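Forwarding these from the shared drive since the link keeps breaking.
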Amino acid sequence: MAAQKDSKLIFAPAGTDTSFRADQYTKNSLSRSQLSPSPFTQFHTWFTHAASSSVPVPETVCFSTCHLPSGSVSSRYVYLKELDARGFVIYSNWATSRKSEDLRSNARASLAFWWREVERQVRVEGRCERLSREESQRYYDLRARGSRIGAWASEQSRVLKEEDGGREVLEKRVREVEERFEGKEEIPVPEFWGGMRVVPEMVEFWQGRESRLHDRFRYTKVGGEDEWKIERLSP
Protein backbone atom coordinates (compact mmCIF):
# COMPACT_ATOMS: atom_id res chain seq x y z
CA MET A 1 0.00 0.00 0.00
CA ALA A 2 2.82 2.41 0.88
CA ALA A 3 4.46 1.76 -2.45
CA GLN A 4 1.20 2.48 -4.23
CA LYS A 5 0.72 5.78 -2.39
CA ASP A 6 4.30 6.85 -3.03
CA SER A 7 3.85 6.19 -6.76
CA LYS A 8 1.22 8.93 -7.10
CA LEU A 9 2.51 11.81 -9.17
CA ILE A 10 -0.25 14.11 -7.87
CA PHE A 11 -2.20 13.68 -4.63
CA ALA A 12 -4.65 16.17 -3.07
CA PRO A 13 -3.12 19.12 -4.98
CA ALA A 14 -5.49 21.68 -3.45
CA GLY A 15 -4.00 21.06 -0.03
CA THR A 16 -1.05 22.70 1.72
CA ASP A 17 2.07 21.44 3.44
CA THR A 18 0.06 20.98 6.66
CA SER A 19 -3.32 19.86 5.31
CA PHE A 20 -4.70 17.94 2.35
CA ARG A 21 -8.06 19.70 2.67
CA ALA A 22 -9.23 21.80 -0.25
CA ASP A 23 -10.35 25.40 0.12
CA GLN A 24 -13.97 26.01 1.10
CA TYR A 25 -16.45 27.93 -1.05
CA THR A 26 -18.04 30.64 1.05
CA LYS A 27 -18.67 33.68 -1.18
CA ASN A 28 -22.30 33.18 -2.25
CA SER A 29 -25.42 31.06 -2.12
CA LEU A 30 -28.16 30.43 -4.67
CA SER A 31 -31.88 29.97 -4.09
CA ARG A 32 -34.80 29.26 -6.41
CA SER A 33 -36.18 32.76 -5.86
CA GLN A 34 -33.01 34.30 -7.32
CA LEU A 35 -33.37 32.54 -10.67
CA SER A 36 -34.83 33.93 -13.86
CA PRO A 37 -37.47 31.81 -15.65
CA SER A 38 -35.11 31.75 -18.67
CA PRO A 39 -31.63 30.18 -18.57
CA PHE A 40 -30.50 32.71 -21.19
CA THR A 41 -31.39 35.64 -18.94
CA GLN A 42 -29.86 33.87 -15.94
CA PHE A 43 -26.65 33.19 -17.84
CA HIS A 44 -26.42 36.81 -18.96
CA THR A 45 -26.81 37.93 -15.33
CA TRP A 46 -24.07 35.59 -14.13
CA PHE A 47 -21.77 36.36 -17.07
CA THR A 48 -22.10 40.10 -16.47
CA HIS A 49 -21.34 39.59 -12.80
CA ALA A 50 -18.29 37.46 -13.61
CA ALA A 51 -16.99 40.08 -16.04
CA SER A 52 -17.33 42.81 -13.40
CA SER A 53 -15.76 40.64 -10.67
CA SER A 54 -12.26 40.37 -12.18
CA VAL A 55 -12.84 36.91 -13.62
CA PRO A 56 -10.16 36.71 -16.34
CA VAL A 57 -11.63 36.10 -19.81
CA PRO A 58 -15.04 34.87 -18.57
CA GLU A 59 -15.99 33.84 -22.12
CA THR A 60 -13.49 30.95 -21.93
CA VAL A 61 -15.43 27.69 -22.09
CA CYS A 62 -14.69 23.98 -22.34
CA PHE A 63 -16.41 22.61 -25.46
CA SER A 64 -16.86 18.82 -25.43
CA THR A 65 -17.95 16.53 -28.25
CA CYS A 66 -18.46 12.79 -28.67
CA HIS A 67 -17.74 10.70 -31.75
CA LEU A 68 -20.12 7.90 -32.69
CA PRO A 69 -20.18 4.95 -32.79
CA SER A 70 -16.92 4.76 -30.81
CA GLY A 71 -18.18 6.97 -27.97
CA SER A 72 -14.78 8.66 -27.81
CA VAL A 73 -15.05 12.05 -26.09
CA SER A 74 -12.82 15.07 -26.73
CA SER A 75 -12.66 18.50 -25.09
CA ARG A 76 -10.96 21.80 -25.78
CA TYR A 77 -11.15 25.39 -24.57
CA VAL A 78 -12.69 27.95 -26.89
CA TYR A 79 -14.30 31.39 -26.54
CA LEU A 80 -18.01 32.04 -26.34
CA LYS A 81 -18.58 34.75 -28.92
CA GLU A 82 -22.35 35.20 -28.91
CA LEU A 83 -25.43 34.48 -26.83
CA ASP A 84 -28.79 34.90 -28.52
CA ALA A 85 -32.37 33.74 -28.03
CA ARG A 86 -31.50 30.31 -29.47
CA GLY A 87 -28.21 29.47 -27.80
CA PHE A 88 -24.48 29.79 -27.25
CA VAL A 89 -22.21 30.48 -30.24
CA ILE A 90 -18.55 29.61 -30.79
CA TYR A 91 -16.44 29.92 -33.97
CA SER A 92 -13.98 27.45 -35.45
CA ASN A 93 -12.86 25.33 -38.40
CA TRP A 94 -15.59 22.80 -39.28
CA ALA A 95 -13.77 20.87 -42.00
CA THR A 96 -10.64 19.28 -40.54
CA SER A 97 -10.81 19.76 -36.76
CA ARG A 98 -11.46 16.90 -34.35
CA LYS A 99 -14.62 18.61 -33.11
CA SER A 100 -15.94 18.83 -36.67
CA GLU A 101 -15.41 15.08 -37.13
CA ASP A 102 -17.26 14.42 -33.87
CA LEU A 103 -20.19 16.66 -34.78
CA ARG A 104 -20.60 15.07 -38.20
CA SER A 105 -21.26 11.77 -36.43
CA ASN A 106 -23.14 13.20 -33.44
CA ALA A 107 -24.50 16.74 -33.53
CA ARG A 108 -24.58 17.14 -29.77
CA ALA A 109 -22.12 18.90 -27.47
CA SER A 110 -21.64 20.35 -24.01
CA LEU A 111 -20.17 23.58 -22.67
CA ALA A 112 -18.68 24.12 -19.22
CA PHE A 113 -17.78 27.52 -17.77
CA TRP A 114 -15.73 27.85 -14.56
CA TRP A 115 -15.49 31.24 -12.84
CA ARG A 116 -13.21 30.69 -9.85
CA GLU A 117 -13.34 34.24 -8.51
CA VAL A 118 -17.09 33.99 -7.90
CA GLU A 119 -17.07 30.22 -7.23
CA ARG A 120 -19.54 29.44 -10.01
CA GLN A 121 -19.94 26.97 -12.84
CA VAL A 122 -22.42 26.78 -15.71
CA ARG A 123 -22.97 23.63 -17.77
CA VAL A 124 -24.85 23.49 -21.07
CA GLU A 125 -25.93 20.43 -23.06
CA GLY A 126 -27.66 20.49 -26.41
CA ARG A 127 -27.64 19.99 -30.15
CA CYS A 128 -25.46 21.97 -32.55
CA GLU A 129 -26.36 23.97 -35.64
CA ARG A 130 -24.18 25.95 -38.04
CA LEU A 131 -24.70 29.66 -38.43
CA SER A 132 -25.26 30.95 -41.94
CA ARG A 133 -22.28 32.23 -43.89
CA GLU A 134 -23.72 35.75 -43.65
CA GLU A 135 -23.91 35.53 -39.85
CA SER A 136 -20.37 34.14 -39.67
CA GLN A 137 -19.08 36.90 -41.95
CA ARG A 138 -20.30 39.57 -39.53
CA TYR A 139 -18.15 38.16 -36.73
CA TYR A 140 -15.25 37.24 -39.04
CA ASP A 141 -14.98 40.88 -40.14
CA LEU A 142 -14.31 41.89 -36.52
CA ARG A 143 -11.24 39.66 -36.22
CA ALA A 144 -7.69 40.90 -36.58
CA ARG A 145 -6.42 40.55 -40.15
CA GLY A 146 -3.84 37.99 -39.08
CA SER A 147 -6.56 35.82 -37.50
CA ARG A 148 -8.65 36.01 -40.67
CA ILE A 149 -5.63 34.97 -42.75
CA GLY A 150 -4.89 32.19 -40.28
CA ALA A 151 -8.40 30.78 -40.58
CA TRP A 152 -7.79 30.28 -44.31
CA ALA A 153 -4.28 28.90 -43.88
CA SER A 154 -4.67 26.37 -41.10
CA GLU A 155 -5.98 22.87 -41.74
CA GLN A 156 -6.86 22.63 -38.08
CA SER A 157 -5.76 19.43 -36.29
CA ARG A 158 -4.03 17.98 -39.38
CA VAL A 159 -0.51 16.67 -38.71
CA LEU A 160 2.38 18.92 -39.75
CA LYS A 161 5.11 16.36 -40.42
CA GLU A 162 8.55 17.41 -39.29
CA GLU A 163 10.13 15.70 -42.31
CA ASP A 164 8.06 17.96 -44.56
CA GLY A 165 9.09 21.10 -42.72
CA GLY A 166 6.82 21.16 -39.65
CA ARG A 167 5.72 24.68 -38.81
CA GLU A 168 7.31 26.02 -41.99
CA VAL A 169 4.53 24.27 -43.93
CA LEU A 170 1.97 26.32 -42.00
CA GLU A 171 3.90 29.55 -42.38
CA LYS A 172 4.19 28.93 -46.15
CA ARG A 173 0.42 28.58 -46.35
CA VAL A 174 0.03 31.83 -44.40
CA ARG A 175 2.30 33.64 -46.91
CA GLU A 176 0.28 32.23 -49.81
CA VAL A 177 -3.01 33.43 -48.30
CA GLU A 178 -1.50 36.84 -47.55
CA GLU A 179 -0.48 37.12 -51.22
CA ARG A 180 -3.94 36.05 -52.32
CA PHE A 181 -5.61 38.84 -50.31
CA GLU A 182 -2.85 41.43 -50.57
CA GLY A 183 -4.28 44.95 -50.62
CA LYS A 184 -7.76 43.73 -49.72
CA GLU A 185 -9.27 44.67 -46.38
CA GLU A 186 -12.46 42.72 -46.98
CA ILE A 187 -11.68 39.02 -46.78
CA PRO A 188 -14.50 36.48 -47.26
CA VAL A 189 -15.06 34.01 -44.48
CA PRO A 190 -13.96 30.50 -45.57
CA GLU A 191 -16.83 28.11 -46.28
CA PHE A 192 -15.33 25.64 -43.81
CA TRP A 193 -15.05 28.19 -40.99
CA GLY A 194 -17.77 29.90 -39.01
CA GLY A 195 -20.16 29.90 -36.10
CA MET A 196 -21.64 26.90 -34.34
CA ARG A 197 -24.58 27.38 -32.01
CA VAL A 198 -25.24 25.01 -29.12
CA VAL A 199 -29.03 25.04 -28.73
CA PRO A 200 -29.50 24.06 -25.11
CA GLU A 201 -31.79 21.35 -23.82
CA MET A 202 -30.25 21.53 -20.36
CA VAL A 203 -28.46 24.32 -18.50
CA GLU A 204 -27.14 23.93 -14.95
CA PHE A 205 -26.11 26.77 -12.63
CA TRP A 206 -23.72 25.76 -9.84
CA GLN A 207 -22.81 27.92 -6.87
CA GLY A 208 -20.02 26.68 -4.64
CA ARG A 209 -20.91 26.27 -0.95
CA GLU A 210 -19.08 25.27 2.19
CA SER A 211 -18.42 21.57 2.90
CA ARG A 212 -19.06 20.78 -0.77
CA LEU A 213 -22.82 21.20 -0.18
CA HIS A 214 -23.17 23.26 -3.32
CA ASP A 215 -26.31 24.92 -4.68
CA ARG A 216 -27.23 23.43 -8.06
CA PHE A 217 -30.20 24.27 -10.26
CA ARG A 218 -30.99 22.58 -13.57
CA TYR A 219 -33.10 24.07 -16.36
CA THR A 220 -34.59 21.41 -18.66
CA LYS A 221 -36.43 22.22 -21.90
CA VAL A 222 -39.98 20.94 -21.62
CA GLY A 223 -41.99 22.22 -24.57
CA GLY A 224 -42.42 25.56 -26.26
CA GLU A 225 -39.84 28.08 -27.38
CA ASP A 226 -39.11 29.34 -23.87
CA GLU A 227 -40.59 26.74 -21.52
CA TRP A 228 -38.20 25.40 -18.91
CA LYS A 229 -38.51 23.21 -15.84
CA ILE A 230 -36.25 24.31 -12.97
CA GLU A 231 -35.14 21.77 -10.36
CA ARG A 232 -32.69 21.87 -7.46
CA LEU A 233 -30.11 19.08 -7.63
CA SER A 234 -28.31 17.39 -4.79
CA PRO A 235 -24.64 18.44 -4.64
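-- next protein --
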Amino acid sequence: MGDITRTIDMRADGTQAGTVFGGRFHSDGGSQFMGNSFSTNGAPIYFGSSSDHRLPASIRELPDAILSSHFTGRVDELQQIDRAFSASSSDLPARCVIHGMPGVGKTQLALQHATLASEQSKDMYTFWVSAASVEKLARDFSKLVDLCLPGRHALDQATKLTLARAWLEDPTAAKKWLLVLDNVTQETSRMILEEILPRRNSGGRLLFTTRTASIAESCTISSKSLMIALQPPGLHDAVKMLAAGARRDGEGTEDASYADLEPLVRSVGHLPLAIDQAASYLKRYGGTKELLDLYQSEDIMEVMRRHDKDS
Protein backbone atom coordinates (compact mmCIF):
# COMPACT_ATOMS: atom_id res chain seq x y z
CA MET A 1 0.00 0.00 0.00
CA GLY A 2 1.54 3.30 -1.10
CA ASP A 3 1.89 6.55 0.76
CA ILE A 4 -1.26 8.62 1.13
CA THR A 5 -1.23 12.19 -0.12
CA ARG A 6 -4.22 14.23 0.98
CA THR A 7 -5.19 17.83 0.44
CA ILE A 8 -7.67 19.02 3.04
CA ASP A 9 -9.75 22.14 2.66
CA MET A 10 -10.74 23.40 6.09
CA ARG A 11 -14.02 25.25 6.48
CA ALA A 12 -14.46 28.03 9.00
CA ASP A 13 -16.65 25.83 11.19
CA GLY A 14 -13.92 23.22 11.52
CA THR A 15 -15.47 20.63 9.19
CA GLN A 16 -13.57 19.04 6.36
CA ALA A 17 -14.45 19.90 2.79
CA GLY A 18 -15.46 16.95 0.66
CA THR A 19 -18.44 15.26 -0.89
CA VAL A 20 -20.72 12.79 0.83
CA PHE A 21 -22.47 10.21 -1.32
CA GLY A 22 -24.57 7.54 0.36
CA GLY A 23 -22.67 7.69 3.63
CA ARG A 24 -19.28 7.61 1.91
CA PHE A 25 -16.81 10.40 2.56
CA HIS A 26 -14.25 11.25 -0.11
CA SER A 27 -11.37 13.46 1.00
CA ASP A 28 -9.56 15.33 -1.76
CA GLY A 29 -6.71 12.80 -1.85
CA GLY A 30 -8.94 9.85 -2.74
CA SER A 31 -9.11 8.12 0.63
CA GLN A 32 -12.58 6.84 1.49
CA PHE A 33 -14.39 6.38 4.76
CA MET A 34 -17.27 3.94 4.38
CA GLY A 35 -19.07 3.07 7.59
CA ASN A 36 -16.95 0.23 8.88
CA SER A 37 -14.04 0.45 6.47
CA PHE A 38 -11.34 2.78 5.26
CA SER A 39 -9.78 2.42 1.83
CA THR A 40 -6.84 3.83 -0.03
CA ASN A 41 -6.30 3.25 -3.74
CA GLY A 42 -9.16 0.78 -3.77
CA ALA A 43 -7.79 -1.43 -0.97
CA PRO A 44 -10.29 -1.53 1.91
CA ILE A 45 -9.25 -1.85 5.53
CA TYR A 46 -12.18 -2.91 7.70
CA PHE A 47 -12.25 -1.84 11.28
CA GLY A 48 -15.76 -0.92 12.46
CA SER A 49 -18.05 -3.29 14.31
CA SER A 50 -16.54 -6.20 12.39
CA SER A 51 -13.27 -6.01 14.30
CA ASP A 52 -13.82 -3.78 17.31
CA HIS A 53 -15.24 -6.73 19.23
CA ARG A 54 -11.69 -8.01 19.54
CA LEU A 55 -10.70 -4.94 21.52
CA PRO A 56 -10.97 -4.72 25.29
CA ALA A 57 -13.85 -2.68 26.64
CA SER A 58 -11.41 0.18 27.19
CA ILE A 59 -7.82 1.16 26.42
CA ARG A 60 -5.73 3.33 28.74
CA GLU A 61 -2.52 4.61 27.16
CA LEU A 62 -1.22 7.26 29.54
CA PRO A 63 2.29 8.26 30.72
CA ASP A 64 1.62 7.32 34.33
CA ALA A 65 5.30 7.67 35.23
CA ILE A 66 5.18 11.45 34.90
CA LEU A 67 2.06 11.95 37.04
CA SER A 68 3.09 13.67 40.24
CA SER A 69 2.39 11.50 43.26
CA HIS A 70 1.68 14.65 45.26
CA PHE A 71 -0.69 16.34 42.83
CA THR A 72 -3.01 18.53 44.84
CA GLY A 73 -5.57 21.27 44.28
CA ARG A 74 -6.80 22.28 40.81
CA VAL A 75 -10.35 21.29 41.80
CA ASP A 76 -11.93 24.21 39.94
CA GLU A 77 -9.96 23.53 36.77
CA LEU A 78 -10.79 19.81 36.80
CA GLN A 79 -14.46 20.65 37.21
CA GLN A 80 -14.27 23.11 34.31
CA ILE A 81 -12.88 20.41 32.03
CA ASP A 82 -15.56 17.95 33.13
CA ARG A 83 -18.31 20.48 32.48
CA ALA A 84 -16.92 21.40 29.07
CA PHE A 85 -16.95 17.80 27.93
CA SER A 86 -20.30 16.87 29.45
CA ALA A 87 -22.04 19.98 28.06
CA SER A 88 -21.14 19.29 24.42
CA SER A 89 -24.22 18.41 22.36
CA SER A 90 -22.99 18.52 18.74
CA ASP A 91 -21.89 15.62 16.57
CA LEU A 92 -18.30 16.90 16.77
CA PRO A 93 -15.76 15.77 19.36
CA ALA A 94 -15.79 18.18 22.31
CA ARG A 95 -12.66 20.29 22.73
CA CYS A 96 -10.88 21.85 25.69
CA VAL A 97 -7.56 23.70 25.60
CA ILE A 98 -5.26 24.40 28.55
CA HIS A 99 -2.67 27.12 28.00
CA GLY A 100 -0.18 28.83 30.24
CA MET A 101 3.47 29.63 30.88
CA PRO A 102 6.14 26.89 31.15
CA GLY A 103 6.11 25.08 34.48
CA VAL A 104 2.58 26.14 35.46
CA GLY A 105 1.28 22.56 35.48
CA LYS A 106 -0.56 22.12 32.17
CA THR A 107 0.63 18.57 31.56
CA GLN A 108 -0.05 17.52 35.14
CA LEU A 109 -3.59 18.90 35.00
CA ALA A 110 -4.32 17.18 31.69
CA LEU A 111 -2.88 13.90 32.96
CA GLN A 112 -4.84 14.10 36.19
CA HIS A 113 -8.07 14.62 34.23
CA ALA A 114 -7.25 11.75 31.86
CA THR A 115 -6.43 9.45 34.77
CA LEU A 116 -9.66 10.26 36.58
CA ALA A 117 -11.72 9.95 33.39
CA SER A 118 -10.30 6.52 32.60
CA GLU A 119 -10.99 5.36 36.16
CA GLN A 120 -14.55 6.67 36.21
CA SER A 121 -15.56 5.47 32.74
CA LYS A 122 -14.71 1.81 32.26
CA ASP A 123 -15.66 1.84 28.58
CA MET A 124 -13.49 4.78 27.50
CA TYR A 125 -10.48 4.66 25.22
CA THR A 126 -7.87 7.08 26.57
CA PHE A 127 -4.85 8.10 24.49
CA TRP A 128 -1.90 10.41 25.15
CA VAL A 129 -0.01 12.01 22.26
CA SER A 130 3.03 14.26 22.61
CA ALA A 131 2.74 17.22 20.25
CA ALA A 132 6.08 18.74 21.22
CA SER A 133 7.48 18.02 17.74
CA VAL A 134 6.20 16.75 14.41
CA GLU A 135 8.20 13.55 14.85
CA LYS A 136 6.72 12.80 18.28
CA LEU A 137 3.22 13.71 17.11
CA ALA A 138 3.38 11.37 14.11
CA ARG A 139 4.93 8.57 16.18
CA ASP A 140 2.41 8.71 19.01
CA PHE A 141 -0.69 9.23 16.87
CA SER A 142 0.21 6.35 14.55
CA LYS A 143 0.47 4.10 17.62
CA LEU A 144 -3.32 4.28 17.92
CA VAL A 145 -3.47 1.85 14.99
CA ASP A 146 -1.21 -0.62 16.82
CA LEU A 147 -3.42 -0.36 19.89
CA CYS A 148 -6.85 -0.43 18.28
CA LEU A 149 -6.43 -2.28 14.99
CA PRO A 150 -4.45 -5.47 15.54
CA GLY A 151 -2.63 -6.83 12.52
CA ARG A 152 -1.80 -3.49 10.87
CA HIS A 153 1.71 -3.07 12.31
CA ALA A 154 3.33 -3.32 8.87
CA LEU A 155 1.51 -0.31 7.44
CA ASP A 156 3.58 2.77 6.69
CA GLN A 157 3.26 5.76 9.00
CA ALA A 158 1.27 7.95 6.58
CA THR A 159 -1.35 5.24 6.23
CA LYS A 160 -1.46 4.73 9.99
CA LEU A 161 -2.04 8.45 10.60
CA THR A 162 -5.02 8.50 8.27
CA LEU A 163 -6.36 5.20 9.56
CA ALA A 164 -6.08 6.32 13.21
CA ARG A 165 -8.10 9.43 12.43
CA ALA A 166 -10.72 7.38 10.57
CA TRP A 167 -11.01 4.97 13.51
CA LEU A 168 -11.65 7.87 15.90
CA GLU A 169 -14.22 9.36 13.53
CA ASP A 170 -16.02 6.06 12.90
CA PRO A 171 -19.71 6.66 13.68
CA THR A 172 -20.76 3.02 13.33
CA ALA A 173 -19.27 1.98 16.67
CA ALA A 174 -20.50 3.66 19.84
CA LYS A 175 -17.01 4.44 21.10
CA LYS A 176 -16.14 6.93 23.81
CA TRP A 177 -12.61 8.23 23.65
CA LEU A 178 -10.37 10.92 25.10
CA LEU A 179 -7.36 12.09 23.08
CA VAL A 180 -4.84 14.31 24.87
CA LEU A 181 -2.50 16.33 22.63
CA ASP A 182 0.19 17.60 24.99
CA ASN A 183 2.45 20.60 24.40
CA VAL A 184 1.13 21.73 21.02
CA THR A 185 3.52 24.09 19.19
CA GLN A 186 3.07 26.36 16.20
CA GLU A 187 4.53 23.69 13.93
CA THR A 188 2.56 20.78 15.29
CA SER A 189 -0.68 22.75 15.44
CA ARG A 190 -0.63 22.99 11.65
CA MET A 191 -0.18 19.23 11.31
CA ILE A 192 -2.92 18.57 13.85
CA LEU A 193 -5.46 20.86 12.21
CA GLU A 194 -4.64 19.96 8.61
CA GLU A 195 -4.00 16.23 8.82
CA ILE A 196 -4.92 14.23 11.89
CA LEU A 197 -7.57 15.98 13.99
CA PRO A 198 -10.77 13.87 14.17
CA ARG A 199 -13.79 15.99 13.23
CA ARG A 200 -16.67 13.58 13.73
CA ASN A 201 -18.00 11.39 16.52
CA SER A 202 -19.84 12.98 19.41
CA GLY A 203 -18.35 10.34 21.71
CA GLY A 204 -14.92 11.91 21.32
CA ARG A 205 -13.12 14.36 23.60
CA LEU A 206 -10.05 16.38 22.63
CA LEU A 207 -7.85 17.90 25.33
CA PHE A 208 -4.95 20.14 24.25
CA THR A 209 -2.15 21.76 26.22
CA THR A 210 -0.02 24.59 24.84
CA ARG A 211 2.03 27.52 26.07
CA THR A 212 0.47 30.30 24.01
CA ALA A 213 -3.02 31.73 23.78
CA SER A 214 -2.82 32.12 19.98
CA ILE A 215 -2.22 28.40 19.49
CA ALA A 216 -4.97 27.66 22.01
CA GLU A 217 -7.39 29.74 19.96
CA SER A 218 -6.45 27.92 16.77
CA CYS A 219 -7.33 24.60 18.43
CA THR A 220 -10.86 25.68 19.30
CA ILE A 221 -13.81 25.58 16.91
CA SER A 222 -16.43 27.80 18.50
CA SER A 223 -17.35 29.76 21.58
CA LYS A 224 -18.49 26.45 23.07
CA SER A 225 -14.90 25.18 23.20
CA LEU A 226 -13.35 25.86 26.58
CA MET A 227 -10.00 27.63 26.90
CA ILE A 228 -8.41 27.51 30.34
CA ALA A 229 -5.70 30.10 30.98
CA LEU A 230 -3.92 28.18 33.71
CA GLN A 231 -2.43 30.19 36.54
CA PRO A 232 -0.05 29.05 39.29
CA PRO A 233 -1.87 27.49 42.26
CA GLY A 234 -2.68 29.52 45.34
CA LEU A 235 -0.26 29.69 48.24
CA HIS A 236 -2.07 27.11 50.38
CA ASP A 237 -2.19 24.47 47.64
CA ALA A 238 1.38 25.23 46.58
CA VAL A 239 2.70 24.77 50.12
CA LYS A 240 0.74 21.52 50.46
CA MET A 241 2.29 20.34 47.20
CA LEU A 242 5.82 21.12 48.42
CA ALA A 243 5.23 19.52 51.83
CA ALA A 244 3.83 16.35 50.27
CA GLY A 245 6.65 16.08 47.75
CA ALA A 246 9.41 16.65 50.31
CA ARG A 247 8.04 14.14 52.80
CA ARG A 248 10.38 11.28 53.66
CA ASP A 249 9.03 7.84 54.44
CA GLY A 250 5.68 9.18 55.60
CA GLU A 251 7.24 11.81 57.83
CA GLY A 252 7.56 15.54 57.45
CA THR A 253 10.73 17.21 56.21
CA GLU A 254 13.41 17.73 58.83
CA ASP A 255 12.84 20.92 60.83
CA ALA A 256 10.54 22.22 58.09
CA SER A 257 7.16 23.66 59.01
CA TYR A 258 4.61 25.24 56.70
CA ALA A 259 6.01 28.60 57.80
CA ASP A 260 9.43 27.51 56.55
CA LEU A 261 8.04 26.36 53.22
CA GLU A 262 6.04 29.47 52.39
CA PRO A 263 9.09 31.62 51.50
CA LEU A 264 10.32 28.84 49.21
CA VAL A 265 6.98 28.66 47.42
CA ARG A 266 6.88 32.44 47.03
CA SER A 267 10.44 32.52 45.68
CA VAL A 268 9.52 30.21 42.78
CA GLY A 269 6.30 32.03 41.96
CA HIS A 270 4.10 29.08 43.04
CA LEU A 271 5.15 27.27 39.81
CA PRO A 272 4.39 23.53 40.17
CA LEU A 273 7.45 22.44 38.16
CA ALA A 274 9.76 24.49 40.37
CA ILE A 275 7.96 23.26 43.48
CA ASP A 276 8.46 19.68 42.34
CA GLN A 277 12.17 20.33 41.90
CA ALA A 278 12.40 22.02 45.29
CA ALA A 279 10.64 19.04 46.87
CA SER A 280 13.14 16.70 45.27
CA TYR A 281 16.02 18.74 46.71
CA LEU A 282 14.51 18.85 50.19
CA LYS A 283 13.76 15.16 50.16
CA ARG A 284 17.34 14.38 49.24
CA TYR A 285 19.27 16.98 51.24
CA GLY A 286 16.87 18.81 53.58
CA GLY A 287 17.70 22.37 54.54
CA THR A 288 15.02 24.86 53.53
CA LYS A 289 17.21 27.85 54.36
CA GLU A 290 20.04 26.68 52.10
CA LEU A 291 17.65 26.15 49.19
CA LEU A 292 15.98 29.51 49.74
CA ASP A 293 19.39 31.21 49.75
CA LEU A 294 20.18 29.50 46.46
CA TYR A 295 16.94 30.65 44.87
CA GLN A 296 17.42 34.20 46.11
CA SER A 297 21.01 34.44 44.89
CA GLU A 298 20.47 33.01 41.39
CA ASP A 299 17.99 33.21 38.57
CA ILE A 300 15.24 30.70 39.32
CA MET A 301 15.05 29.43 35.73
CA GLU A 302 18.80 28.74 35.76
CA VAL A 303 18.44 26.77 39.00
CA MET A 304 15.62 24.74 37.41
CA ARG A 305 17.68 23.99 34.29
CA ARG A 306 20.69 22.88 36.34
CA HIS A 307 18.49 20.67 38.52
CA ASP A 308 17.06 19.00 35.43
CA LYS A 309 20.56 18.30 34.13
CA ASP A 310 21.69 16.79 37.44
CA SER A 311 18.58 14.65 38.00
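Residues 1-53 have pLDDT under 50 and may be disordered. The longest strand covers residues 176-184.

- D.
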